[in-house]
Write a structure and sequence with these properties.
Layout (H helix, E strand, L loop, with lengths): L10 E7 L6 E8 L2 E9 L6 E9 L6 E9 L5 H16 L3 E8 L5 H26 L1
Helix pairs in contact: 1-2
């Protein structure tokens, strides 16, 4: 698990990935005891769902696993991206992670949704790299 140090009170990080209507923004607050992040993008950023991931040891392996709980906003599917990003960050850092997500494009086609999900993954990877820099 990542040890960001006792002296670290808080770091704020803002990153983006993608371009145009497919850009994803991720803003995170990293503390010594967890990470909270908001991931938005598309044409109408909003609050569409949330997820909380808590790291735990694996079943006989050295990998970090996590348990994730989601809270969807009725009529929205953003909690799926929140859960994806939250679990990615939690397992990569070993830290409890809360993510709120809200990404929207009007009348999005399946390929556009896939692009937004892929860009969300890439933004999460950029964030985990940045978090690991704080723990080095």
């Amino acid at each position: 698990m990542l040890n960001v140090g006792e002296n670290m009170l808080q770091e704020d990080v803002k990153l983006s990935y993608g371009e145009g209507r497919y850009i994803i923004y991720i803003t995170a607050v990293i503390t010594g005891d967890g990470i909270s992040a908001i991931i938005t993008g598309g044409e109408k950023p909003h609050i569409g769902g949330s997820a909380l991931s808590v790291p735990r040891p694996g079943n006989g392996d050295d990998k970090v696993h996590c348990d994730t709980w989601i809270t969807p906003r009725p009529g929205h599917r953003d909690s799926e991206v929140a859960a994806l990003v939250s679990s990615m960050i939690s397992t990569a850092t070993g830290m409890t992670t809360a993510v709120i997500a809200g990404i929207h494009i009007d009348k999005a086609e399946k390929e556009e949704i896939n692009t937004l999900i892929a860009n969300s993954r890439e933004a999460a990877l950029l964030l985990t790299k940045k978090i690991k820099e704080f723990g080095a």
